[in-house]
Amino acid sequence: MAANGRKYSSGGSITGAASKTIVGVTGGTTIRPYLIDLTISSNATPADNSSEWQLLRSTAAGTSTGVTPAPFDEADPVAISTSGKNHSVEPTYTGVALLDIAHNQRATFRWVAAPGEEIIAAATAAHGFGVQCQGVGGSGVAELCSIVFGE
After folding, report:
1. What is the domain range of residue 119?
2. Which of the chain's ends, N or C, has fewer CB atoms near its CB within 10 Å?
3. Is residue 19 left, alpha or beta, with left meaning phi > 0 and alpha meaning psi from -120 to 50?
4. What is the model's pLDDT at position 81?
5. Residues β-bridged to residue 34
6. Can you tell me the distance from the alpha carbon of 121 to that of 9, in angstroms, rounded to the nearest whole number?
7. What is the block-wise mean pLDDT of the chain (151 residues), using blocks of 10 residues?
8. What is the Cα–Cα distance from 143 to 41, expressed in whole angstroms?
9. Is residue 19 in some structural domain?
10. Domain for residue 111, yes or no?
11. Are 14 and 143 in contact (CB under 8 A)?
């Protein structure tokens, strides 16, 4: 991907629960969003709870609360891709997990794409990617997810 492409930030938060998406990004036929950076953390009182998260490709966005992606450069236009959190209907996911993350509540997890190795969505209507909780060990705690994506 172009190092000078437009970059946006989006995120969400949930109390960890299996099969729930914390944040998703959906592109379209005119744009291929690509994942640059992903962070998962917790703002709950420290304890030894764990959760498993997967980054998955989606072919339908589901139903969610829209999140307006924030541009890194204020001169950039509004993102063409859409972002959502608080899903009442989960996205439709396909294929295997692109990232499978075991997260301990006391730690922050961060994944950063090496230049040229970004995870790219298809240039097809409603295709994108999302971060979904696969399971919780111990108590479900408040989790935060921040993503940086480009167009």
Report:
1. 7-150
2. N
3. left
4. 96
5. 120, 150
6. 16
7. 79 88 95 96 90 96 96 95 95 96 94 96 95 87 94 95
8. 6
9. yes
10. yes
11. yes
